[in-house]
Design a protein that fits this description.
The protein contains seven helices and eight strands, in the order ααββαβααβαβββαβ. A hairpin with a 5-residue loop joins strand 1 and strand 2. With 207 residues, the chain is α+β, with helices and mostly antiparallel strands.
Length: 207
């Protein structure tokens, strides 16, 4: 397991307290992983309104782009999205789905030193989350219960971003930026209703 610093552990504690254990596992996917992945597949078990056990498939995919190979978050990159979510929900009181931030704020929450490597990790993490989508479908049992022939859903945690870069004496470096979170995703995250699921009724997850 990856060893976390005290500030990094506080971010995990915030996430679990704010969103619950099961949703937190989605947000932490990729943490400490070295493998380069383009798809994750989750099977989520839950109980419906009648107390019947059901299972739902949720797929996470990196966007296909002709110019570069896109990958899902890994290593310490998931910690970056946790820091940004804390800024959005706690510090900014979710005044909108757009978060303007200073790099020093993010570095402070992460407990990382201000270095070129740290800034690059933050920038690349935001790019990875902007290049990924969540997809989900209903099982045959759920379709039958709702009298539907098919159902597909899609959501993004980050829909856009920008950053300000200043030219220094030796190198350019990011100073601030803006992240446009997916409003529907954030609403589901805070209400624990992501992917059309009541996460208070989720019993487990298989990754």
């Amino acid at each position: 397991l990856m060893k976390l610093s005290a500030p990094e552990q506080r971010l995990l504690d915030f996430t679990r307290e704010q969103f619950g254990e099961h949703i937190s596992q989605f947000l932490l996917a990729g943490l400490g992983e070295e493998d380069e992945m383009q798809t994750w597949l989750f099977m989520v078990t839950f109980t419906n309104e009648l107390g019947v056990h059901r299972c739902r498939e949720i797929k996470v995919e990196a966007d296909e782009r002709p110019d570069i190979v896109t990958l899902l978050p890994r290593r310490r990159e998931p910690l970056v999205i946790l820091a940004l979510l804390q800024l959005l929900i706690v510090d900014r009181k979710m005044s909108s789905a757009s978060l303007s931030y200073e790099l020093e704020e993010v570095l402070g929450l992460l407990g990382w030193e201000d270095s070129a490597k740290s800034r690059l990790t933050i920038d690349e993490a935001i790019e990875r989350y902007a290049d990924m989508s969540y997809y989900w479908t209903l099982s045959g049992e759920e379709l039958e219960e709702r009298n539907l022939s098919s159902y597909k859903g899609q959501s993004r945690i980050v829909s856009g971003y920008s950053r300000c870069i200043a030219e220094g004496e030796r190198r350019s470096k990011s100073l601030s930026g803006m992240v446009e979170f997916g409003a529907r995703f954030i609403e589901g995250l805070v209400g624990r209703t992501l992917f059309d699921l009541d996460w208070n009724n989720v019993r487990g997850k298989i990754f």
